[in-house]
């Protein structure tokens, strides 16, 4: 997988990780939509410093292993319905807490940092610094945005950072791997700016403005969707258990009187 951190993968794996690697072939039987979602989540988590050395097959195998653990715990409790609930809830909680939420946080941090990064890139180019050198300089900074550009540079080197002809550059490749449409657009814009060679500062300034506008629009949209996003967790973890307890309390006296 492209999300594998190869330097960490070279170290010997713990026994339980080796067992997950052995389950790797199940990836080809995994639904494509689910697979792409986990791959994107793992990409952003690793960019933020989490799950180093983990490849996509291992992560999918971990979800499937948790499915089995949940079912086993439910069956051990003597209730198939409980087993079904545990089978669904344990992998869901794992994905939400350790992949989805951290990945969203990293992606939002990237989006927040990007307008300033592109503005500084325009300032560097305006000071007669070549665009590739400006990208390298700014990639030495802190934050998720700088880390993403470092990753793109590491992939193909400074010379392969931009696309040329049929050869896809490191930025375009990493943008596709991220699953972020705005990032793909930015990588394409930077490729075009590099090809033009003139008016780079003005074009970068326009790109920074449009990036900031998109970020503000997305932030407003997320704020409006907060209510809808918390409905499912509330139903699963508050309302459903409350109803289950209520039914148990009401049904217990009836069951005792009948039997």
List how many beta strands DSSP finds: 0
State the end-to-end distance: 58 Å
- The backbone outline, from C-alpha atoms, is elongated
Uncertain spans: 1-9
Question: How would a crystallographer describe the biggest sheet?
Answer: none
Which class best fits the helix and strand makeup?
Answer: mainly alpha
What does the model show?
This protein is an all-alpha fold. The chain has helices at 6-9, 15-22, 32-47, 56-76, 80-126, 131-139, 144-156, 170-178, 181-196, 200-229, 231-258. α4 (56-76) runs antiparallel to α5. The protein contains 11 helices and no strands. Helix content is 78%, strand content 0%.
Can you tag this structure with a few keywords?
259 residues, mainly alpha, elongated, disordered N terminus
Give a quick rundown of the structure.
The chain is mostly helical and 259 residues long. The chain has 11 helices and no strands.
How are the SSEs placed, and which strands pair?
Elements: H1 6-9, H2 15-22, H3 32-47, H4 56-76, H5 80-126, H6 131-139, H7 144-156, H8 170-178, H9 181-196, H10 200-229, H11 231-258
Helix pairs in contact: 2-4, 3-5, 4-5, 5-6, 5-10, 6-7, 7-8, 8-9, 9-10
């Amino acid at each position: 997988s492209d999300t594998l951190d190869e330097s960490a993968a070279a170290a010997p794996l713990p026994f339980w990780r080796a067992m997950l690697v052995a389950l790797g072939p199940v990836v080809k039987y995994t639904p494509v939509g689910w697979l792409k979602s986990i791959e994107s989540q793992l990409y952003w988590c690793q960019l933020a410093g989490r799950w180093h050395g983990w490849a996509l097959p291992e992560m999918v195998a971990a979800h499937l292993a948790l499915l089995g653990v949940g079912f086993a715990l439910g069956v051990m409790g003597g209730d198939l319905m409980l087993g079904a609930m545990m089978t669904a809830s344990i992998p869901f909680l794992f994905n939400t807490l350790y992949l989805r939420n951290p990945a969203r946080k990293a992606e939002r941090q990237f989006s927040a940092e990007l307008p300033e990064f592109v503005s500084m890139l325009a300032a560097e180019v305006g000071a007669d610094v070549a665009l590739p050198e400006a990208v390298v300089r700014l990639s030495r900074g802190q934050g998720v945005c700088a880390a993403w550009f470092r990753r793109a540079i590491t992939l193909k080197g400074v010379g392969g950072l931009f696309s040329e002809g049929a050869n896809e550059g490191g930025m375009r490749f990493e943008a596709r791997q991220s699953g972020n449409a705005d990032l793909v657009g930015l990588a394409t814009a930077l490729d075009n700016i590099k090809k033009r060679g003139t008016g780079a500062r003005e074009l970068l300034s326009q790109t920074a403005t449009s990036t900031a506008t998109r970020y503000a629009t997305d932030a407003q949209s997320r704020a409006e969707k907060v209510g809808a996003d918390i409905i499912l967790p509330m139903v699963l973890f508050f309302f459903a258990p409350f109803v289950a307890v209520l039914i148990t309390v009401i049904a217990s006296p009836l069951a005792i009187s009948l039997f």
